[in-house]
What does this fold into?
Amino acid sequence: MDTMRGKMEEELKKLDEKIADAEENLGESEVREAHLAKSLFYIRIGDKEKALEQLKVTETKTVAVGQKMDLVFHTLQLGFSYMDFNLISKSIEKAKSLFEEGGDWERNNRLKVYEGLFCMSTRNFEKAANLFLDSVSTFTSYEILPYDTFIFYTVVTSIVSLDRVSLKQKVVDAPEILAVIGKIPYLSELLNSLYECQYKLFFSAFAGLTEHIKMDQYLQPHFRYYMREVRTVVYSQFLESYKSVTVEAMAEAFGVTVEFIDLELSCLIAAGKLHCKIDKVAGVLETNQPDAKNALYQATIKQGDLLLNRIQNLSRAIEV
It folds into this structure.
């Protein structure tokens, strides 16, 4: 530890000398580069507070919008290293405002990956999937994650976010995804078995992929939640085809026991995730798929009644 601290102090001394020399003898761009080098050194050794302070100093020496966005990307990398969501959120908003001032599309595409990663880390899988899919053909954010991992995140978020038609168009048939998906164990089997309704194969691939998800830095905190969301998607897809189906037939389709399906579905139905009911005596599942138009009509009626009540209360107050 003493040897390492000595090397760090020696390196910092060199960086300070470089900054002093640039301020005395060189131009503004050289001064900025010297301050940036010191910022990157603090990031490399994991000194979060000093790195943020030095990045702010570097920003005061920076004029170009693109270079300011690069500093925000360094801040975001630091935020993801410490999973500081407050810092990440503020940095993303700052980068968006800088882009409005005149940022380039390459940096904006990089920002989509960072924002998608933030959304995935905060359980906003739908927005994360859309951002990732927008960046599949323009991915250049290798400093935050490799392309294989990016495709993994794109597929796992899309599975719980997109409908079957969109999944086919944007993920299953996407050439960029097809070129990489085979490198990730079980991922291709999971995606294709879901689309092709091969539920036994899906559960087998799903079991194999759980270890990958459990070991992932960003998905691990949401492991149980994500597992439940995936099972909800696949059960819903199966039940959409039937008005009623026996529990035994469903268990056979998924390659599991009747007791397992009964326990799974009862929990998901109680949580409002599945629209069906279990006839335990007959051993039958009866689906009651929600009518979107009827739900919208009921919501409109309810909001209308609420508005009328407020108008009546306001008229009484005015009369008084």
Q: What stands out?
A: The first strand starts at residue 244 and ends at 246. The radius of gyration is 27 Å. The chain has a mean pLDDT of 86.
